Amino acid sequence: MHERNSDTPYISTEDAMSFWVEMETAVGAALDENGEITIVAPFDVERLFDFTITLNSKRPKRTDFEARIKSKRWLEIWPKLVVNA
């Protein structure tokens, strides 16, 4: 993905997620070696409760951001969602 996006090679999953188009969707979960859930969220999880969707400054192409909002129908599904670009 880093080559497709013209980024330097990612050093970890969290680093790769920090390049996602919108900040709120950069959240992942995995099981660690003890079977415990580990959350990976380079922009923290509090954003998930703010009813916002925010363009990541590492991805300044607003057209990609707007296309994702439209294709995912986020404003139809969550009409109170605030777009931060």
In sequence order, what are the helices and strands, one letter per element? Answer: HEEEHHE
Number of strands: 4
Beta-strand percent range:
15-25%
Adjacency order of strands in the biggest sheet: 1-2
What structural category do the secondary elements indicate? alpha+beta
Question: What low-confidence regions span 5 or more consecutive residues with pLDDT below 50?
Answer: none
Rg from alpha-carbon coordinates: 14 Å
Q: Tell me the number of structural domains.
A: 1
User: Gap between N and C termini, in Å?
Assistant: 23 Å
| Number of helical stretches of at least 4 residues | 3
Provide mean pLDDT, rounded.
93
Percent of residues in helical segments? Answer: 10-25%
Question: Major beta sheet, specifics?
Answer: 2 strands, antiparallel
Shape: globular
Layout of helices and strands, plus pairs?
Elements: H1 13-17, E1 28-31, E2 37-40, E3 52-54, H2 62-72, H3 74-77, E4 82-84
Parallel strand pairs: 3-4
Antiparallel strand pairs: 1-2
Kindly list the characteristics that best describe this protein.
alpha+beta, 24% helix, globular
Polypeptide structure, described:
This protein is an alpha+beta fold. The chain has one domain (13-84). It is built from 3 helices and 4 strands, in the order αβββααβ. The strands form 2 sheets. The protein has a two-stranded antiparallel sheet. A two-stranded parallel ribbon has the order 3-4. It is globular. The relative contact order is 0.17. The model has no long low-confidence stretch (mean pLDDT 93).
